[in-house]
Amino acid sequence: MKVLSGSCVDVPCTFTHPSSHRPSEIAWYSYSSTQYPLVYSWRTQEIIEPFRGRTQLSGDVNKGTCSLRITDVKPAMNEYHLYPWIDPDHVKHTFYHKTVKLNVQDAPRSVHVSGESSTVVVGGSITLECRSNANPPASSFLWYLQRSGSISSLMFREQSITITDLQPDQNSFYCTAHSSLGVANSSSPFIISGEYQPIISSESSCIIGGRVLWCWCKVQSLPNATVEWRIEGRPPQFALSDMEEFSVLQNHTLRGKLSISKAVLHIGVTCRASNDHGQQNHTLIIKAPPQNVSITLQPSRVLEGQSLLLSCYNHAFPAVLSYSWYRDEGSGTVLLRERSENLYLQVTGRYMGPFRCSAINQIGEGRSDSTLIQVDFAPVISPNSTCSLDHGVVWCECVVESYPVATVIWTAPSVVESSQAVSVDPYWPLRATLTGHVRSGQARLITCHATNQHGRVSLQLLLKDPSAMSSSSLVAAGCGAVAVALLTAAVFYWIRKRRRNGSQDNVGVEVVRYRNNQKKADLRTT
């Protein structure tokens, strides 16, 4: 007998009885080979589930009606074989030779996915089945896969499917069962964990903090991986101290530290992760503030008036985010506007700077030493260069400014048994000296020659005999006195004459310095 789940149904039943006996009670049973389970009875406490509270007689017993009414038919009543018993307390023969089988029709329910295993190696395969309690059985199915929070529909329509493209970590499967009576979805997923060998993330790295090197190794694996550290130049059993472990799903991060006392850019730190499916090694990148910061010049040598490029050279990982340029002035420092790696300058003067630069990345800052820019120029001989003679011994000093440093050569035919010396100070002019004895009867001209790659210059220094200088000085003094007297009288006469004439003319004196440091005075009237 077909009945719908949730419906109310009457199981028809009639009987006849002898006129001598009038039946008063009717009971319904479920067929069993060993017992007599009650489906309906006046003894309600003995009625079995799922019929308790849901059965009653319909019709009049006195008129030979024994029909059973079932209200709210349940799927659990399916395939029960029912039969009545008329007056069971008085009638001893049985009635189970003729039963009614309940065929409860129901839409799919208790839908769920079943599988051979909940873990599969990535690249393998697994068979899944969509199961449900339905009468008639479900005839078509839909499949769904959830990964990383996103649900997608699969192309399968069969009850049993084989999956071969499992992804690492969790793969959650759902299904929907369809029948002629309705549709139902699986209420919970069947989760398959795709196992795989360790994968070390490129985010794994080391960061310098003071004199400590912190290292992170981020590993994805299923099952969980065992992680080992290898430090270059250290024994295999050496490990980072203060180890910490963090885990989110199959993402595992381990952190440790290493005290350092040398250039960390040359330390190799390797993370090794392994599980049942394999292993992976990864050499960690060391992140640090910019290292070896210095200023480079292009061109390396420059002349006044030319352009100069300063670059802030450094080793940095991660990359530099910004640069700063500074110029030292006295006891203070001036921050320049330039924020790029390069600083362009127009060369003025013989010295520029000193300049400094700093490079900043997300880890910290690195600074260069100060760089003073020395501008190349041809030699210049100072007028303070001089010669002196004392008791036949000459001493000369030639003061030269130049960059690069000039080569100094003396030309002195009158000097014998000479010796030369040169003193150089980075912040003062070059001083070249000549000492020796003077030959009598020869011209006493001494010449200083200074040469570098940008030019050559010479200066003649006249060396006179001190005794000749004394007599000449007396004659010159007498002549000078007479000349002054005559000049004074002439000027006085001229002034008186001009006053008479009302003239406004002026008199000027110009002193001209020649290359040999001699002086001449020319009287010019304008």
Automatic annotation (TrEMBL):
Keyword tags: Membrane, Transmembrane, Transmembrane helix
Ig-like domain segment(s): 108-193, 290-374
Organism: Astyanax mexicanus (Blind cave fish)
Gene3D superfamilies in alphabetical order: Immunoglobulins
Protein name: Hemicentin-1-like
Domain of life: Eukaryota
InterPro entries linked: Ig-like_dom (IPR007110), Ig-like_dom_sf (IPR036179), Ig-like_fold (IPR013783), Ig_sub (IPR003599), Ig_V-set (IPR013106)
SMART domains: IG
TM helices/strands, residue ranges: 474-495
